[in-house]
Amino acid sequence: MKKKFAFYWAASCGGCEIAVLDINEKILDVIKNADILFWPVAIDTKYRDVENLPDEYFDFCFFNGSIRNSEQEHLAKLLRKKSKVLVAFGSCAVEGCIPGLANLYRKEDILKRGFIETESTDNPKKVLPQKEISYNSEKMELPEFYSQVFPLDEICEVDYYLPGCPPPTGLIINAMEKIFANENIPKKTYLAPTKSLCDTCERNKTFPKKMPKIKRMIEIQPDPNTCFLEQGIICLGPATRSGCKNLCINANWPCTGCMGPTPEVSDQGAKMISALTSILLLDEEKKNYEEFYKILEEEINKIKDPIGSFYMYSLAKAILNKRRGE
User: Fold this and answer.
1) Is residue 322 in some structural domain?
2) Could you tell me if 215 and 313 lie in one domain?
3) Alpha carbon separation from 208 to 49, 69, 165, 196, 259 (Å, rounded)
4) pLDDT tens-digit profile of 67-107?
5) pLDDT of residue 282
6) Residue 189: phi, psi to the nearest 5?
7) Boundaries of each NADH:ubiquinone oxidoreductase-like 20kDa subunit domain copy (predicted)?
8) Of 31, 46, 179, 205, whose CB neighbour count within 10 A is largest?
């Protein structure tokens, strides 16, 4: 008997939908083993149709996207109720991802920038979206825009996690095969390897005992056979889960952390900062404290975007996960 499959996107870019199609001919195995009954990007199923279904009607649901508004929260809780298995699919659902960076700003500032201050916006009356308005005796509503971004498991219970931005096709295929085979997978399992990216990187043999001065990718032509950290370039490999087949590294680009932290790490950015400080400017430590601190401060100031460098994907899941005060 075919399994009943649901797929939903919340605050996301659509890349996770493309990733599903990127499994190529394996999509035929999905069609063979499952009926896709709810997928807003591809099927015109109404929310009320899902609301009228029996509880646990779907055998499994892949939910991608973080939660930013009341509509997304409603669908997250609804699909949790209607699904036997709920999978947080992709970095946005797992840890907030790029939408989570908006937690650095107040809700009011985001709306003001988006609808009033952008250079291409023509809004002389400075009208902002409202949750509810009346027009010609008709009441119209928009979803409530929340003050922060939430990962999926802060809204409802999640059974499994499939990380990545987007999840690598190999991991998607592996996850679907496990589901189709009714494998008994422990709840809360990440359907991805547990080793760090550095453990699988061919440049690992040049992993540095020390890191020279910090450099940016626009400043040098990196050696494709040498660890980025050895060359002074920030690479999140030490703090990031493997499973992506080192796609960025193989393209001679440093890891930015989209697979999220390894199992023993609770805060990916803090882990990377710790790793960086253990190898940065070790040769300079021989100097007196004041001189060393001055050199260290100069290097740290070269990191133009600390949050984007260390928390590009994981800010909404971090210990300090949003703006505090003014």
Assistant:
1) no
2) yes
3) 56, 44, 27, 16, 22
4) 999 999 999 999 999 999 999 999 999 999 999 999 999 99
5) 63
6) -70, 140
7) 13-177
8) 179
Lookup result for tokens 């984007």 = 308
Examine residue 323 and state whether it is found in any structural domain, yes or no. Answer: no
Tokens of 309: 């460098």
**Same domain flag for 164 and 301:** no
pLDDT digit string, tens, across residues 239-261: 999 999 999 999 999 999 999 99
CA–CA gap between residue 293 and residue 302 (Å, rounded): 14
Determine the length of the chain: 326
pLDDT of residue 250: 96
Report the amino acid identity of residue 39: W
Rg for the chain, CA atoms, rounded: 22
CA 196 to CA 241: how far, in whole Å? Answer: 5
- Predicted confidence at residue 213, as pLDDT, reads 85
Q: Could you tell me the residue range of the domain that residue 254 belongs to?
A: 197-317
Query: Measured between alpha carbons, how far is 288 from 57 in angstroms, rounded to an integer?
Result: 67
Q: Contact 75/20 with Cβ under 8 angstroms?
A: no
Torsion of CA 244, 248, 249, 252, to 10 degrees: 160
Separation CA 126–CA 258 (nearest Å): 37
Distance CA 204, CA 280 (A): 17
> How much of the chain is helix, strand and coil, in % rounded to 5?
40, 15, 45
How many separate helices (H) and strands (E) can be counted in the chain? Answer: 12, 10
Closest CA to 162 of 188, 201, 195: 188
The answer on 125 and 16 residing in a single domain is no
The whole-angstrom separation of Cα 61 and Cα 84 is: 8
Res. 326: pLDDT tops 60: no
